[in-house]
Amino acid sequence: MNQADFDVPMEVMIERQLLHRYGPLIGNDDLCQALGYPSKDAFRQALARKHVPVPVFDIENRRGKFALVADVAKWLLVQRSRAVNAEMSGSLQSAAGQPTTEEAQ
């Protein structure tokens, strides 16, 4: 990494990495892995229940489901932001002497 990489927003970095690896579309096993599903069956079940967190679509004369790399990158960043915010919230509660979620249970 060079200094210019640190000036690029994380969403752009993630999208660039995914674009470099997969091109503008990501599908099937790669999509399953990028979205964090533990298995192909779990991904198929999410598709059937319409619980996939990004828009997926068919492509004529192609097998499987596809998503835009840009959509996957945005979703990944949202997941990270949620985790960081939850961690920060827990740290602030601990610093204030309030029980964290884990301690309260």
Labels describing this entry:
single chain, 105 residues, mainly alpha, two-stranded antiparallel sheet, 2 strands
What would your notes on this structure say?
This protein is mainly alpha-helical. Helix content is 61%, strand content 6%.
Would you summarize the structure shown here?
The chain is mainly α and 105 residues long.
Task: Describe how the helices and strands are arranged.
Blueprint (H helix, E strand, L loop, with lengths): L2 H4 L3 H13 L2 E3 H7 L5 H9 L17 E3 H27 L5 H4 L1
Antiparallel strand pairs: 1-2
Helix pairs in contact: 2-5
Straight-line N-to-C gap: 42 Å
Q: What is the makeup of the main sheet?
A: 2 strands, antiparallel
Largest sheet strand order: 1-2
What overall geometry do the principal axes of the alpha carbons give?
Answer: flat
Low-confidence spans? none
